[in-house]
Design brief:
The chain is α/β, with parallel strands linked by helices. It has helices at residues 4-15, 22-34, 38-43, 51-65, 70-74, 98-112, 130-138, 151-163, 202-207, 222-230, 250-260, and strands at 76-79, 82-85, 120-124, 143-148, 170-174, 185-190, 235-244, 265-270, 276-282. The chain has two domains: 4-74, Ubiquitin-associated (UBA) domain (Helicase, Ruva Protein, domain 3), CATH 1.10.8.10; 88-282, 3-Layer(aba) Sandwich (Rossmann fold), CATH 3.40.50.150. The strands form two sheets. The protein has a seven-stranded mixed sheet with strand order 5-4-3-6-7-9-8, with helices on both faces. Strands 1-2 form a two-stranded antiparallel sheet.
Length: 285
């Protein structure tokens, strides 16, 4: 039987033309099949790989070579330090969305200063539930309504909410954007489907749900027009609205936000790569 080191070496070579992280991909897949933490692969690099594991590894490696995300192959993805179940029913959570969570946490803590009641937060387009769960874990008094139009996505989100023991504070609602919401919220966050489907990277287009990718029209902005049209009626005075955007959309989406919230402070926040990533709206008390 070949060793872990030999399997990883061969897999890295095979994935080199497909992935920017071929070694990491191979390690995650093999660790998943062995039921080990990834660090153990390094410590036991001479461990022999049994035939059933080798067959499973070959099958998953072929799917990865075809462009399928590693998260779908292993069934989970880390986001903001939390392990989330994911599959083809939901978009794979992206690291850049963690900036949206960081800004939302800062806004929530600012809004909560001096208050004794629980914050009301709405997460629009929740997908796997990643944003809602991250906010609920770090804001233990908050009540969160997580909305998605896809019943399949809500099934995944429900499993993640229950997995993290948050069923009492994260409520899942099916509907289009803000339509299921009742009353006003202190904070509204959204990572909506803002891409232009014809411009989506081929492997993403082939494997991830189109409903979670495209809803923005020819410029990717239609989804924000719809969101901002209803948001003022659902946002408390002194509240905040935060939306993830595409790297090319900062000025466009910020102008839409200013038109919807004339007295508000609107700013565009860039990610670590220097790309426009979040539009932040802070309303007056």
């Amino acid at each position: 039987m070949s060793t872990i080191a030999a399997f990883l070496h061969a897999a890295q070579a095979r994935l080199g033309g497909v992935s920017t992280t071929p070694r990491l991909d191979a390690e995650l897949i093999l660790a998943h099949l062995l039921g080990w933490p990834r660090a153990r692969l390094v410590a036991e690099r001479d461990y022999p790989v049994a035939p059933p594991v080798a067959e499973g590894f070959a099958a998953l490696l072929a799917r990865r070579a075809g462009g399928e995300p590693v998260a779908y192959l292993v069934g989970h993805k880390e986001f903001y330090g939390l392990d989330l179940a994911v599959d083809r029913r939901v978009l794979v959570p992206r690291p850049e969305t963690e900036l949206l969570v960081e800004l939302a946490l800062a806004a929530a803590r600012r809004i909560a200063t001096g208050r004794s009641d629980a914050l009301r937060i709405a997460d629009i387009g929740t997908g796997s539930g990643a944003i809602s769960i991250a906010l609920a874990v770090h804001l233990p008094a908050a009540q969160i309504d997580a909305v998605d139009i896809s019943p399949e996505a809500l099934d995944v989100a429900r499993a993640n909410v229950e997995r993290h023991g948050l069923a009492g504070r994260v409520r899942l609602l099916r509907g289009d954007l803000l339509a299921p919401l009742e009353g006003r919220y202190d904070l509204i966050v959204s990572n909506p489907p803002y891409t232009i489907l014809a411009e989506v990277e081929p492997n993403v287009y082939a494997h991830e749900p189109h409903l979670a990718l495209e809803g923005g029209g020819p410029t990717g902005a239609d989804i924000y027009r719809r969101l901002f049209a209803d948001a003022p009626a659902h946002l408390q005075p002194g509240g905040a609205l935060l939306c993830e955007i595409g790297a090319w959309q900062g000025e466009l989406v910020a102008n839409l936000a200013r038109a919807a919230f004339p007295p508000a402070e609107v700013r565009v926040v860039r990610d670590l790569a220097g790309h426009d990533r979040v539009v932040s709206v802070a309303t007056a008390p």
